[in-house]
Amino acid sequence: MAAVFACPGAAQDGGGRPQPPPLVKFKPPTLQEIERSIERGVTWLHSAQLEDGSWGPCRPGGVYGQPDSAPSVGYHVGPTAFSLFALAKCGVRRTDPLMKKALDWLRKRDAAALYKDGGYRRGEWTNYTSYESAAVILMLCALYEDDAPKPAPKKKPRKKRRKKKEKQAPRRPAGPWAPPAGSAWSEADWRWLHDRVQHLVVDTDHENACQVPGLGWGYFGWRDNAYCDVSATQFALLALREAAHAGYPVNKVAPKAWGWALRYLKGMQYEHGAFAYNTEHAWNAGLTAAGVASLAICREQMRLANDKPPEWVDAAIKRGLGRMSELFDVRQNRSARGGNSGYHYYHLYGIERVGALTGRKEFGAKDWYVRGAAYLLANQREDGKWYDPSCMRPRDVLGTCFALLFLKKATPPEYTTGE
After folding, report:
1. Domains present along the chain, CATH in parentheses
2. Residue scoring higher pLDDT (17 or 323)
3. What is the pTM of this model?
């Protein structure tokens, strides 16, 4: 979006020569306008909730490349978990009736997707993709992020007693399946988080973990499938980052995850800094943002674990940021093939993530947030939703979630403390 916008038409002077159109100065939206837009989006997303508490499945024609005639194989969890994630980031608490109803629905779906031994059914509608596990993790961490443990107030020293009391047994068992002491997490929700992390990382005994050993993530792992892509890798890393910040010991459970992801990302970046979905697709701005965000997360998490990142990472991030500046356009997801390559609102949310993770305020000498916010406010529907025709279905639900996450600056900036 240019700094000025040309009005349509071209005036002519008395000599008949065309004159440049008058220029209208770009007007950034006010904070009040942005807040009002967010309120309208939240209200619409609330109204879009179905009677059963969900926001519906990814429908035929929008189910990860399936044709319109194909039946839905049931990626049911994703839109609902992602909607709750967006609502939580907009300040809706987990005690809200809307949230509780959706969480009840998700818990039932989650239970149906598990064998009693913790395995996952393969080839049925109950499958979890890596996207869905990541969405559940992001949702849970967002629901509890305002309830982080607070330092206990200092107590006045007491007089020594004659008889020393025996030490009380710990309130919770040790291990990654137990929430951190002093946290507001319920045992059930922390176990839910644990199961979803176990689904993502491969350094566990779970046969169906999604990370490809030595590389990144695809939709599913299954260990016999070496498929992975930059988009799935990004969402897995975002989720693991938030799980680690919530206190889950990601670095102990899966110490190789960050390094493996970096190895994959290094092979996926073009020399000029861009990223593509995978080796069979052309690069575009949205996937370039996904790749840069992923590099930044791995670098951050390795540093927090006192594990030195590879020397090449800083240069790779710099190249990616440079390419993002060249491609920056809040009106479209520019690609190597020209024009808009689709998934535009996903692309905008990608810009927000990179801006937050790297502290970057501008791309192409333009304030990315102000430009993006102006675009979203101008394209919000009258009923409060955003509709992305290039996104998978439900396009209004997912488009609204991506827009809200951008406007709320939902990605936490670089963390300086570990798990």
Report:
1. 37-64+72-146+186-407 (1.50.10.20)
2. 323
3. 0.83
